[in-house]
Amino acid sequence: MPDLKHERRYMRLHKGPIAGVDEAGRGPLAGPVVAAAVVLDPRCIPEGIDDSKALTAPRREKLCAQLLECAKVGIGLASVEEIDTLNILWATMLAMTRAVEALGFAPAMVLVDGNRCPDWDHRSAAIVGGDALSLSIAAASIVAKHHRDCLMIELDALHPGYGWASNKGYAARVHQEALRTLGPTPHHRRSFAPVAQSELRLSASILTE
Fold first, then answer.
1. Cα radius of gyration (the chain)
2. What is the pLDDT of residue 206?
3. Residues 164-177: tens digit of each pLDDT
4. Nearest residue to 31 (alpha-carbon basis) of 77, 89, 98
């Protein structure tokens, strides 16, 4: 289970609030990438915080609500257009930067899940597997995942047939079949190969009709 070992270490060094940052949605074919920054209050930490992938959707929803009540939370997004323009790595870095900015103050230290930090002015450290090690990063993973899941459920209502309410934009079979038959929507990442290929197939079929 994640703990506060990293947070305590950097708090002793830098004498200020420590933020954990994580993202959700690097791999899907559709939808934005979402990042969250969380500064926990040691006096009010919800029980059961863990890597979002280890939790059920109802548990993430409950923990996210609790974190929004008792922690400092910032959420940042990078749009599909930004993903296609910058590529998914730099769009993720942009979403993380926006998440920290959304806190409304500069943390003394930012702990980032992964092997690199955005190019920003914040003192920061990348922690591989941080969502399973750092409680702040795990909390951020929960907020980012729940927020993005809610966005994809909303988009599913606008664009039925792709199964986004269940697959959240990942390349599930129903999603790929819908891409072949319906083609991409404005929320698809056209820089991702399966989407680009489906667009080419749809254009070719129109030309041959």
1. 18
2. 52
3. 999 999 999 999 99
4. 77
